[in-house]
Amino acid sequence: LHRKLGDLRGEAGDVGNIAEVYRGMGDNQQALRWANEAIRIYRELGDRLGEAMRLATVAAIHRERGEPETALRLVLKTLQLYTELGVKNLLVAQHSACGTLYLGLGAPERALEHFRTAARLGCEIGYTRDEGYAHMSIGAALEQLGDHSGAVEAYRQASELLDRAYRESGMPGELSGKADALALLAKLLHRSLEQPEEALITYRVAADIYRELNDPDRLRKLLLGMSGLCWRTGRLEESARGYEEVLELARTQDETSHEAVALASLSVVYRDLDLLRES
Questions:
Q1: pLDDT in tens, 203-213
Q2: Rounded Cα gap, residues 138 and 153, in angstroms
Q3: What is the tens place of the pLDDT at every residue in 4-36?
Q4: Contact 166, 124 (CB under 8 A)
Q5: For 228, how many CA atoms within 13 A lie in the half-sphere containing its CB?
Q6: Which pTM was predicted?
């Protein structure tokens, strides 16, 4: 209909939406075809913002196809366009995307630059949620660089920001993000900094949030680490309860690998509790 009416702008919007639908269906070939067509139309219209937004779509598709170098080249081009247009709100996401790609390509220093820029921009425009996620990514980059104390501080800041975002919006996504930051913090305290008491407290808070959100996948993975720490620190009953919960979740979801891990771990914990028949 838009084509019949000669409405190029309407057609560009439709074509871009079709690309997103194909992307959602997992048909990346068709998604790329339609997204590139949208870029062509936006260029014809002289709409640089529309062109940049669809360029970001093309970059995301290449990232999903496992082509990080191509995706990074396109994200950097999108970032340049957004910078020239001065759209700070869209720059946050692109800096984060750049950082994620650099991190995956083994360039944590470059990733850190982009994550810090995303955090700064998020703070400037009052996007607490985006600022929080950027700090979570800063923590991941600092971990790769071996700066564990810096990573701990970044994860703590991410948790605080996402907690504030949740209190402002009431959206479960922000609460889930807070739990993710706490899970990363607990894991780092547990494995890298040898602070088991704080790690255990942090694990428990994150686990409670995942239970509240009814997120069994994240809860199951978290409980494996938490239960192992409980066993290490002599909290055998709590360790057993954790592994039993993992076992129940794994069986409910047909996650046989985690079911096997839970059974193997329980055999050790039960042995240490002198429950030899159960072991």
A1: 999 999 999 99
A2: 10
A3: 999 999 999 999 999 999 999 999 999 999 999
A4: no
A5: 13
A6: 0.89
